Structure formats: structure tokens, C-alpha cells
């Protein structure tokens, strides 16, 4: 459970770092390297969790299939965050879009709620409010992403801007969706273990 | 093929898709930038596209053809205008050329001939521009040299990128005017600004940092909240008058300042031409 907590903490930090990167882009573009390290750290933690799961004599805190799913879903949050940060450099983005900043703010809050939910599961405290918040944020992210992509197709916009930002908006939405996937899995675990 | 290093930016206003397709293939092979337009656009939009030349089928212009040709000829002197038509009389061609068209091509025409005519028009314009010695634009302590795509303060180079220079030039050539972000983007980037795009704010911030580093006693670019920017050189002393409000544009820059009085004590703008 400590490793899952560590994974969620790492995911939370990655989403916060991405939010900071976008808020002060391009001045703090160096934060992309930090997110890459967090992504590598996430991979290491995921490997440790799965390795520990298959060690003999270890009693997992809940069903191994749930641990598998949860580990991958948390890792996806970090992977998509890193992909979004990497795309800014890869596409030579010169300046941020306001909608991308809004999306990363939603993602950072969602990442924090995921961490709160995992902490609540570990501490046997109330998990439901955190899961509800993650779902609300997913809806908000979905709305922001759709509006952002639609705005790119106004007349006369540079096609390169459309290509770059459509891709980045979609990746940010996937990161937010991954938080919701984590919430679904946590809810299932919580119900199966008689917690709420 | 033109000897200029910068690729020619060409727009074609023509509904003949076959002609446009063949022309597009050829100009793309020459690394030109082509904007194919299926309807005439207002002249100010052509300005925003930062074109070298436009090829227009006169049949696309309808009854306002002469008005359109004249508007381009008079309003956008740096833009080459090549008119195409399937059928035209001598009187029509003469009228079009006198109103501002640089060339008139009769259809059917080979795309290679159109390309050669565009090149000739652009070449002539560049020669004419080269002959015009504009001289540096002097504003406050700043000297903007169009011939070097650079700005200087007391001989010190600001080391501006091409985009920063174009932004500075645009602002400095419209002194004391508030330019909207959308207009700035259109004229510097050559495309419509996507909603939410912070490029103008980011580049104004970079420009200000370089200006403040080399000309610390002066402020040149002023923010107008929710609108855009105004270029007006002012010394710090003139800015710090009692009662004048200096506030920051939240999403743009820590150095952006809202101007309570749009026409503060500013230095004059002079050209040494």
C-alpha cells in the first residue's frame, strides 16, 4: 500500500509540475526535464509494485488484478503528463494557450484528489468525496478540451498551430481521463473491501 | 527562380481548382508559401498574410473588380498584384494596370508563365524597395534599423530575433496607437490568432526584457488590459507622476503596466531618413 501511495504522490507531483510549466511557459520550460524524471520514477515504482505482488509470501492489501489495474492507471497519469510536456518542446511551441493552462490546472487538482483518495483508502477514512471530485474535474476537463479543439478550427488559423495544439489538448484530456480511471478502480476496491 | 533567400509568399484567388492544384504543386517544389483562397478577402486580411504577391482571377471579383484592384494597388503598395482573366478587352486590361495591377495574364495560361510573372513582379518590387533608403527609426533611446532587422541603444545591439524585431517594428510604426492582440498577431505571424493564444503576450514580454536591459530608464510598450499594446517611449520619471495607476496584466507579464493616461509625457518619434 505504501508503494501505491508513493505512485500516487509521484503522479500528483507530475501533474503539478506540468501545471507550473504551462503557467510560466516558455520561461520555465526546463521543468519538462523534471517531469521526465518523474515519469521514470513512476515506471520504477510500478515495476516495484508488480514485482512485490509476485513475491512469495506477500499478502496483497487487495485483489492482485485490482493492484495491476491501479498501478497501470496511475502510471498513465504520469505518462500522459510527460507526453504533453515533451510535445511542447517537440513541436517548438513558442507560447502557451490559455485553454491548455486551464486544462493543466484541472489536471493538477485531479492529481491531488487521486492522491487524497489513495490516502483515504490506506487510512480507512472517507474516500467518496475525493472520487466525486475527480469525476467532476473529468467533466470539466472534457468540456474545456472540446471547446479548445473547436476554437482551433476558426477561419484563417495557422494549420501548424491547429496540428500542434489539437494534439496537446487531446493528450491533456487523456491525462485527466486517467485520473478518472484511477477513481473507478479505487471505488471498486473500496466497495469490494467494504469501505466507503 | 528568385535569388532571394526568403521564400515568396503567394496567394491565389481562383475557383479553377485544376489550375490552382498544378500551380500549388510547382510553387511548393520551389519552397514558396501558397495560400489558395476560394473567394476574395478584404485587403486588410491580405496585409495580415504578409504576402509578396497575389494572383487573382478577375471573374472572382464580380462587379467590384475595379474597386478591389484599386484598393490593393493603393492600400498595399508592397504587394504585387497579377490579374488573370479568361476573356478581356484591351480597355479592361489597360484600366486594371492603371488602377494598380502589376501584370495581366490571359487564360488559359501555363502555371510556369504565371510563376515567372510573379517572380518578375516580386523582383521589381524588391529593387524598388532597396532604392528607398528609409533610415533608422529613432524612438526614445532606441534606434530601429530595418535594413539590419535589429534595434540598438547607444550602439548596443538588442540581439532581437526576427519575430521580436517584427513585433517591435510594427508597434513602433504605430506610435501612440493601441493595437489589439489579434491585429498584432495577424500582422506579425501572418495568420488569424487562435482564441486563447498567448504568443503576443509572450513576445511582448521578451521584447520588454531586452528593452529594459539596454534602456533601463525608459518604458516603450504599454499594456491595455483586455485589448492589446501601445508603443510610446516614456521615461520612468514621466510614468511615476502622482495619480497615475500602474497595474499588471495578469496573464501577460510582470512588467506590463496599464496606462491610466494614454498620452503621458512621451518622447517624439523621428526617422532619420
Please provide a brief summary of the model:
The complex is a heterodimer of chains A (196) and B (273). With 196 residues, chain A is mainly alpha-helical.
Number of helices of chain B: 9
Which consecutive residue ranges of chain B, at least 5 long each, have pLDDT under 50?
240-266
The CATH architecture designation of the largest domain in chain B is Orthogonal Bundle
> What is the averaged pLDDT score of chain B?
81
| Structural class by secondary-structure content of chain B | alpha/beta
Instruction: Please state how the strands of the largest beta sheet of chain B are arranged side by side.
Output: 2-1-3-4-5
Structural description of this entry:
The complex is a heterodimer of chains A (196) and B (273). Chain A has 196 residues and is mainly α. Chain A has one domain (2-192): Methane Monooxygenase Hydroxylase, Chain G, domain 1 (Up-down Bundle), CATH 1.20.58.220. Chain A has six helices and no strands. Chain A has helices at residues 2-23, 31-53, 64-90, 98-123, 128-151, 159-192. In chain A, helix 2 (31-53) runs antiparallel to helix 3 (64-90) and helix 3 (64-90) runs antiparallel to helix 6 (159-192). The two termini of chain A are 17 Å apart. Chain B is α/β, with parallel strands linked by helices and 273 residues long. In chain B, 37% of the residues lie in helices and 22% in strands. Chain B is built from nine helices and 13 strands. In chain B, strand 8 (150-153) and strand 9 form a beta hairpin. Mean pLDDT of chain B is 81; it is low at 240-266. The chains are: A mainly alpha (196), B alpha/beta (273). Chains A and B meet through helix 4 and helix 6 of A and helix 8 of B.
